[in-house]
Amino acid sequence: MNAPAKGTALAAKVQNTAVSAMTEDQLVNILRNSLYPGAQTDSIKMVLGYCQAAGLDPMQKPVHIVPIYDGKLKSMRDVVMPGIGLYRTQMSRTGECAGVTEPEFGTDTTETLGGVEITYPQWCKVIVKRLLPSGQIAEYAATERWKENYAMKGGAEKSVAPNAMWTKRPYAQLAKCAEAQALRKAFPELGAAPTADEMEGKEFDGQVIDAHVREVTEEKPALPTMDKEEVITRYGTDVVDDKSGEVTKFSKKSLIQQGDAKAQTLIDFLAPRCALTNEAIAEIQSWEKK
Question: Which of 53, 131, 163, 194 has fewest C-beta within 10 Å?
Answer without folding.
Answer: 53
